[in-house]
């Protein structure tokens, strides 16, 4: 059985353009790329599902019909893409609201971990101090230093850079 | 037995409710559960001592041989009686220990009761894996109990240490249990002990299990977690760290000893760690000022003693070991409870601040004296008779276990340890009740109930001391599993002038001398510690934990760079390289053909150009419109292939997506932000091209590999016969592969909810409803009522008229599509999307208020009812005896109109329809109306002047 080479050309271009866009940092571009990538992959299902033919509806003729199972899968994929698009757009809008652009930034917490690795430090939650006695009642006296709960990751990074 | 274990957990679940109504008196009710279990157990236990072992089995997963086995062997029976008896007393004690109105006891009561249940389950388990489950349950619950007061950092650390150390041991043990179960061919412990496997694998397995026992029973080098566990309330210390949890290790050793004490490594490991722990614990206890910590180190020492004796593996030693377990449970829990009373009465546990308590708390002093005498091994208490038996067993150890010179050496260790025990016992009594020249603390008279528990326990130590004969016969039921040794073991107060008695006298005298010379001993000890530089176990442990933490930071820092493009690039490169190499190396050429017709070439050409222009586009809107071109082109390709359902859905989805994109685009900057790095762009394009080529290659290969007749063609018959429809794709979605579709609509519900929550954040979706109520009152009535809320300049009369006319038509069409989908292209997805587009038209023409007029209902309600209807269409057939989601086909005559062909999977399609409409409504409300509203609030979008005036 032969494969329609024109459809394969469409697949190659759609997937290539889609992945190029997905690798961008702007969430809008990522979403555009994602939808395009989805279209390309849906065509892969079509190509892989055999030759073109009659619609898979019983009683519409005698010619060979197309394979219905991949079509059901692709239909699911199309609708899911709609859900992903809507959610991604809401994310992009929210990002724009918060930061004024919709670029996906590098993760701040990961940056913190990388800095800690460079400084040969343990993790933030690691308890290096062994002072204090256990007791079933009472609580620790609040100390001014060493208490970094409630501060932002960004503040912590700033503080650590200052220490370094 | 399973009933009494389950009752504990039931009581634990009810405990918070009881505490709410009864406050701390709830403990008295809770104590009835272990008390009742204790009473019930007396009968089966007595039978077990007579050789009649009760077993219970609950099959769980028979196909893989997983079941709950319980058994009441003599050993299990003794442990179960200890666990329930002491448990009942400790729970009752809690009633008076906690202060009236303590806010934390609802949790504490539940956890402690659940712990009692886990411990009971552990000691009656007859299945390696059941034993393991209860074992880890006690670990987790003990973590919660140690961390009872999380306000202190030291408490949190103590709880974590206990959790990590015992879980580490538990995991090592689990490995051993698996190997042992595999080697033995059964998981039932009674069967394994009756016919133990042999060989290297078994040896390794048993040694691994011993690591678990050693960590749980806090032996060197894991001993440091136990003193830290004193962060728990004192009743917990009395129960977990004296009678119950730490005994789990001893229990496990006792369980395996009859079968495995002769394997290589067993005796050296247990005798050495046990006796070393006994001596180190004793030495550390001599240096404590907190009487609770003193007892904690004493417990460490005693556990070493117990493990050494129980693990020695001779009949006499096993007998003595079991007697010691009983004795220790009675005296140590009594002493801890005494400490609790002192703490509550005086407010301190520091022996430098306590003085004269033997006068002010005489009853308590009496109980403490009995318990302490038992601990020191002084007649006529159980501690004495048990220790005599242990000394006698170790005197014969070299001969019974064939240890040669190591037997006497172990005996020396035992005597040294016993001497230290006497010394720290003396220190405890002197510290808690002695007279010192300090200001006496004010002593509040404790409630009778608080003193009752230690008095009962201490009294039992005394009674058991005289009950040597009945105890002997019962303990022999267990010890009889060992070959008999040089002497027949016996618990009695008077054996005659035996070497064991001489050693006892030696230990007591030596211990008292050590106590008399305590100042010199203490300073000598200090000098010794300074000189030896032996690192403390806790510091070593801390270093190990720190190293693990550092390693994880280094690995995370190297691999987790936090950049989305980098992650995606790596994933895509793997996709290209790994299957790509196979593709290239095994390529044999595929059979290709040219285009089917010129139209196809034209469509593909347009799609290709549009796709490339999308990548190059710097304007957001242009990119989105070009994306639409590729989408519609794909839909045409679907049509050409013979997939009308796909084409229909694709067109509708594409339309809906583009408008949604535009909703958001109108607020974002018109251009994408500048990315000046050309090298990064080249890399992106290169990865993109490689991925495209690779996927194209995979597509060619996949199409070429299609040699067998695919399963899809066979769907035609069932689709008609069972699915009752002609459109096979639709029947596949709503019947043949309905579970997939059900999962999918669940995802859609999640996505829709996510969209709404990202835009409206904490406010509810129905915010705009209140607005719509105002509109109904507004006098403006044009073609669209809600349109009165947008500024006149932005209104279009023509569009409003079109929207008014088209909306009902579209809605009817959408419902038609949903019904027709069974036989023709269409179905719930397509119908729902049409309805969504109809709503979209209303919104575009008349704004968000018009949308609310068109659909005056919360999107969440639509989503939820859709999901519920879909779920019911699956559940109802299952409930009335068919398979879930099975379709029923009915032909209902409706008079002159003929028959209605009703297939019940239609209800599933209605659910799908509603979910899609709900998604559309959520998207329109959030990304449409929600963004409008926020734009107006921020002044970026012009609103109708009338609305601004409304407060």
From TrEMBL, chain A:
Q: Which InterPro entries match?
A: CPA3_antiporter_subunitC, NUOK/Mnh_C1-like
The subcellular location is: Cell membrane
GO cellular component, alphabetical, reads:
plasma membrane
Topology within the bilayer = Multi-pass membrane protein
Query: Which parts of the sequence are annotated with region: Disordered?
Result: 124-164
**Keyword Cell membrane attributed:** yes
Q: Which residues cross the membrane?
A: 6-23, 30-52, 72-93
Record's keyword annotation contains Cell membrane: yes
Coiled coil ranges: none
List, as start-end ranges, the regions of compositional bias called Basic and acidic residues.
Answer: 153-164
> What keywords does the record list, in alphabetical order?
Cell membrane, Membrane, Transmembrane, Transmembrane helix, Ubiquinone
| UniProt xrefs under NCBIfam families | PRK07946.1
Q: Which family does it belong to?
A: Belongs to the CPA3 antiporters (TC 2.A.63) subunit C family.
Q: What is this protein called?
A: NADH-ubiquinone oxidoreductase subunit 4L
Organism, by scientific name, is Knoellia aerolata DSM 18566
TrEMBL record, chain B:
Q: Where does the record place it?
A: Cell membrane; Membrane
**An individual GO BP term:** monoatomic ion transport
| Membrane topology recorded in Swiss-Prot or TrEMBL | Multi-pass membrane protein
**Residue stretches making up the Na+/H+ antiporter MnhB subunit-related protein domain:** 798-921
Enumerate the spans annotated as MrpA C-terminal/MbhE domain.
681-759
What GO cellular-component annotations does this UniProt entry give?
Answer: plasma membrane
User: Where are its TM segments located?
Assistant: 77-98, 105-123, 129-146, 158-181, 201-226, 238-260, 266-286, 293-312, 318-342, 363-385, 405-430, 450-473, 493-517, 566-586, 598-616, 623-640, 646-664, 685-703, 745-763, 801-820, 826-845, 857-880, 900-924
List each copy of the NADH-Ubiquinone oxidoreductase (complex I) chain 5 N-terminal domain by range.
61-108
Return the InterPro entries for the record: CPA3_Na-H_Antiporter_A, MnhB, MrpA_C/MbhD, MrpA_C/MbhE, ND/Mrp_TM, Proton_antipo_N
For the keyword Transmembrane helix, the answer is yes
A Pfam cross-reference name: MnhB
Query: What keywords appear on the UniProt entry?
Result: Antiport, Cell membrane, Ion transport, Membrane, Transmembrane, Transmembrane helix, Transport
Domain MrpA C-terminal/MbhD, chain residue ranges per copy: 606-669
Boundaries of every NADH:quinone oxidoreductase/Mrp antiporter transmembrane domain copy: 125-397
GO molecular-function term, one example from the UniProt record: antiporter activity
The molecule here is called Cation:proton antiporter
């Amino acid at each position: 059985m032969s494969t329609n080479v024109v459809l394969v050309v469409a697949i190659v271009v759609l997937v290539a353009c889609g992945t190029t866009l997905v690798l961008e940092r702007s969430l809008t571009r990522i979403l555009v790329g994602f939808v395009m990538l989805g279209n390309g992959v849906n065509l892969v299902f079509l190509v892989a599902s055999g030759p073109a033919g009659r619609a898979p509806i019983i009683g519409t003729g005698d010619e060979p019909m197309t394979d219905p199972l991949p079509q059901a899968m692709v239909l699911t994929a199309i609708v899911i893409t709609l859900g992903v698009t809507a959610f991604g757009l809401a994310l992009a809008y929210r990002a724009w609201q918060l930061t004024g652009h919709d670029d996906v930034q590098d993760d701040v917490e990961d940056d913190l971990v990388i800095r800690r690795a460079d400084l040969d430090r343990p993790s933030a939650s690691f308890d290096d101090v062994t002072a204090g006695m256990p007791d079933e009642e009472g609580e620790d006296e609040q100390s001014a230093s060493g208490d970094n709960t409630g501060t932002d990751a960004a503040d912590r990074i700033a503080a650590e850079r200052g220490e370094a | 037995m399973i009933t009494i274990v389950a009752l504990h957990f039931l009581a634990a679940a009810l405990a918070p409710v009881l505490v709410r109504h009864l406050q701390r008196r709830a403990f008295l009710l809770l104590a009835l559960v272990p008390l009742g279990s204790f009473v019930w157990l007396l009968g089966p236990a007595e039978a077990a001592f007579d050789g009649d072992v009760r077993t219970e089995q609950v099959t769980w997963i028979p196909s893989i041989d997983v079941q709950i086995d319980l058994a009441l062997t003599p050993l299990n029976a003794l442990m179960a009686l200890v666990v329930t008896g002491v448990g009942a007393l400790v729970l009752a004690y809690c009633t008076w220990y906690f202060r009236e109105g303590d806010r934390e006891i609802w949790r504490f009561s539940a956890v402690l009761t659940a712990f009692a249940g886990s411990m009971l389950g552990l000691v009656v388990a007859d299945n390696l894996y059941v034993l393991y489950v209860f074992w880890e349950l006690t670990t987790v619950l003990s973590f919660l109990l140690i961390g009872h007061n999380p306000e202190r950092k030291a408490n949190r650390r103590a709880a974590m240490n206990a959790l990590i150390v015992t879980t580490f041991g538990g995991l090592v043990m689990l490995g051993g249990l698996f190997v042992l179960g595999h080697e033995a061919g059964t998981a039932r412990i009674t069967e394994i002990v009756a016919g133990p496997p042999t060989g290297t694998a078994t040896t390794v397995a048993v040694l691994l299990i011993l690591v678990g026992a050693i960590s749980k029973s806090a032996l060197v080098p894991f001993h440091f977690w136990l003193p830290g566990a004193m962060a728990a309330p004192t009743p917990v210390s009395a129960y977990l760290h004296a009678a119950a949890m730490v005994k789990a290790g001893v229990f496990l050793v006792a369980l395996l000893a009859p079968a495995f004490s002769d394997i290589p490594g067993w005796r050296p490991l247990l005798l050495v760690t046990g006796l070393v722990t006994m001596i180190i614990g004793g030495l550390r206890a001599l240096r404590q000022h907190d009487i609770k910590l003193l007892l904690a180190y004493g417990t460490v020492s005693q556990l070493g003693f117990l493990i050494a004796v129980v693990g020695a593996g001779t009949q006499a030693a096993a007998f003595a070991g079991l007697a010691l377990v009983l004795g220790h449970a009675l005296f140590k829990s009594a002493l801890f409870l005494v400490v609790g009373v002192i703490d509550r009465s005086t407010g301190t546990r520091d022996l430098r601040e306590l003085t004269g308590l033997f006068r002010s708390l005489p009853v308590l002093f009496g109980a403490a004296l009995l318990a302490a005498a038992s601990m020191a091994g002084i007649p006529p208490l159980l501690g004495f008779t048990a220790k005599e038996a242990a000394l006698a067993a170790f005197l014969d150890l070299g001969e019974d276990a064939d240890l040669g010179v190591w037997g006497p050496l172990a005996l020396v260790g035992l005597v040294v340890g016993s001497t230290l025990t006497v010394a720290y016992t003396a220190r405890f009594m002197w510290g808690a009740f002695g007279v010192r020249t300090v200001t006496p603390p004010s002593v509040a008279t404790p409630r009778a109930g608080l003193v009752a528990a230690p008095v009962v326990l201490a009294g039992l130590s005394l009674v058991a001391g005289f009950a040597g004969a009945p105890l002997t016969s019962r303990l022999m039921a267990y010890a009889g599993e060992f070959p008999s040794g040089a002497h027949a073991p016996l618990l009695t107060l008077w054996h005659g002038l035996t070497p064991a008695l001489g050693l006892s006298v030696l230990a007591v005298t030596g211990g008292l001398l050590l106590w008399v010379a305590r100042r010199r001993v203490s300073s000598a000890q200090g000098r010794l510690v300074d000189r030896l530089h032996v690192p403390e176990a806790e510091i070593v442990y801390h270093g190990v934990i720190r190293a693990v933490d550092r390693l994880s930071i280094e690995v995370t820092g190297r691999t987790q760079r936090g950049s989305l493009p980098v992650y995606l690039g790596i994933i895509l490169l793997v996709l290209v390289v790994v299957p790509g190499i196979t593709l290239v190396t095994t390529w044999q050429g595929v059979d290709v053909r040219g285009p089917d017709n010129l139209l196809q070439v034209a469509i593909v050409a347009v799609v290709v150009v549009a796709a490339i222009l999308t990548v190059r586009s710097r304007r957001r809107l242009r990119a989105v419109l070009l994306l639409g071109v590729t989408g519609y082109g794909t839909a045409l390709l679907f049509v050409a292939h013979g997939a009308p359902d796909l084409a229909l859905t694709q067109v509708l989805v594409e339309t809906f997506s583009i408008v949604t994109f535009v909703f958001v685009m109108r607020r974002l900057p018109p251009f994408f932000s500048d990315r000046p790095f050309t090298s990064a762009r080249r890399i992106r394009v290169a990865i993109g091209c490689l991925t495209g080529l690779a996927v194209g290659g995979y597509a060619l290969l996949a199409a070429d590999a299609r040699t067998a007749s695919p399963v899809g063609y066979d769907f035609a018959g069932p689709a008609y016969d069972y699915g009752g429809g002609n459109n096979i794709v639709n029947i596949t979605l709503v019947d043949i592969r309905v579970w997939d579709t059900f999962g999918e609509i669940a995802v859609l519900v999640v996505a829709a909810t996510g969209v709404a929550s990202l835009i409206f954040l904490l406010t509810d979706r129905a915010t705009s409803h209140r607005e719509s109520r105002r509109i109904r009152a507004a006098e403006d009535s044009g073609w669209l009522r809600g349109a009165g809320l947008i500024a006149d300049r932005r209104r279009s009369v023509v569009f409003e008229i079109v929207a008014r006319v088209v909306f009902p038509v579209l809605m009817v069409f959408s419902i038609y599509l949903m019904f027709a989908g069974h036989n023709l292209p269409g179905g719930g997805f397509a119908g729902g999307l049409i309805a969504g587009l109809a709503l979209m038209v209303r919104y575009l023409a008349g704004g968000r208020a018009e949308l609310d007029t068109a659909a005056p209902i919360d999107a969440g309600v639509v989503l939820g009812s859709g999901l519920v209807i879909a779920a019911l269409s699956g559940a109802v057939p299952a409930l009335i005896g068919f398979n879930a989601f099975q379709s029923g086909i009915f032909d209902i005559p409706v008079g002159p109109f003929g028959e209605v062909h009703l297939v019940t999977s239609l209800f599933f399609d209605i659910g799908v329809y509603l979910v899609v409409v709900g998604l559309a409504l959520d998207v329109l409300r959030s990304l449409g109306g929600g963004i409008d509203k926020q734009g107006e609030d921020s002044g970026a979008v012009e609103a109708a002047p009338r609305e601004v005036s409304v407060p």
